[in-house]
Design brief:
The protein is an all-alpha fold and 297 residues long. The protein has one domain. 67% of the residues lie in helices and 0% in strands. The chain is globular. It starts with a helix and ends with a helix. The relative contact order is 0.11. The protein binds zinc ion (ZN) (2 copies). GO terms for molecular function: iron ion binding; oxidoreductase activity.
Length: 297
């Protein structure tokens, strides 16, 4: 532990108290983690089940509030597109996503544990230091966003769009559940960007713990579902953190079918001029013009 922090903690009773609560919480979670792996009795099954349950709970748990908002219309003034999604469409999407989760995504989910062993991802009951945790999650966000930008752009190329990516564009006005509504090849390619980032990091730099990977996957699910929510609020993250993409950015991609290819951030689309005209016009203070605008002239 940092010596400056230790001396601050000793001098400041509030910092000292928070530090002791934090340490006790981590110790409790570590013992819970150890007991879970011992209870299942197989590391392969324990990791696979953990990923499967967390994926399902977070995916549908995070999509539910958006569905409730759509049905109750209590925040309809914040809907980006004035389009009602019938229950039949939501139900069809739900069925397709469930099939994808249990038939396609279950395979890599249960194949993750052996890969952890190959690249050296730690899953012991010794949780990572906060600095590794924060640095790595930040890095995973930028790594995945770069992967997503280029592969998503490629998926908009002629035959790739026609035979693969068109499925994800079925809904011009997206809703939360559509985040993972995609062709199996697209699920595999975009999924590789999400899990590939920690695998690459662990292989080259080490010190990656499974807890960091799980937290990253949960945050990535929140990002993807929220980007498809169809809602833009005055308190949406990109108002305070302008590089963040959010629903405002991705909804335009579904509406116009081209442009805004990134997942979490805006910099690739801005720098490479692939923002949709409506997104680019919001940057009038930077006098940016989308190449999509120029092509139109
Ligand atoms: Zn697309
Ligand atoms: Zn989408």
């Amino acid at each position: 532990m940092n010596s400056t922090f230790v001396s601050q903690a000793a001098a400041n009773p509030v910092i000292g108290y928070l530090d002791s609560v934090g340490t006790a919480s981590v110790l409790y979670l570590e013992s819970l983690w150890a007991r879970y792996y011992a209870w299942v009795g197989s590391d392969f099954l324990a990791t696979g089940l953990l990923f499967l349950v967390i994926h399902e709970v977070v995916y549908f748990g995070r999509s539910l509030p958006w569905y409730i908002l759509d049905r109750t219309k209590i925040l309809k003034n914040y809907k980006i597109q004035d389009k009602e999604i019938p229950d039949s469409e939501q139900l069809q999407c739900l069925k397709d996503v469930l099939i994808s989760h249990f038939v396609i995504e279950a395979i890599p989910i249960f194949g993750f544990q052996p890969i952890c062993n190959i690249v050296g991802i730690d899953y012991s009951a010794n949780f990572p230091a906060l600095k590794y945790f924060l640095i790595q999650i930040t890095a995973f966000f930028f790594m995945e966003d770069t992967w997503h930008y280029w592969f998503h752009r490629l998926l908009h190329y002629g035959p790739f769009y026609k035979h693969i990516h068109k499925q994800h564009h079925k809904y011009a006005a997206p809703f939360g559940l559509t985040a993972e509504y995609a062709h199996p090849i697209e699920v595999a390619v975009t999924g590789l960007g999400t899990v590939g980032s920690p695998l690459l990091w662990s292989y080259f730099f080490g010190h990656v713990h499974l807890v960091t990977v799980i937290t990253w996957v949960v945050l990535r699910l929140f990002q993807a579902i929220d980007a498809h929510s169809g809602y833009e609020f005055p308190w949406s993250l990109h108002h305070f953190f302008p590089i963040w993409a959010g629903a405002d950015h991705h909804d335009d991609h579904h509406k116009f079918f081209v442009g805004n290819y990134s997942s979490s951030f805006r910099h690739w689309d801005y720098v490479l001029g692939t923002e949709t005209p409506s997104t680019a016009r919001k940057h009038t203070f930077l006098k940016n013009t989308s190449v999509l605008d120029k092509k139109k002239k």
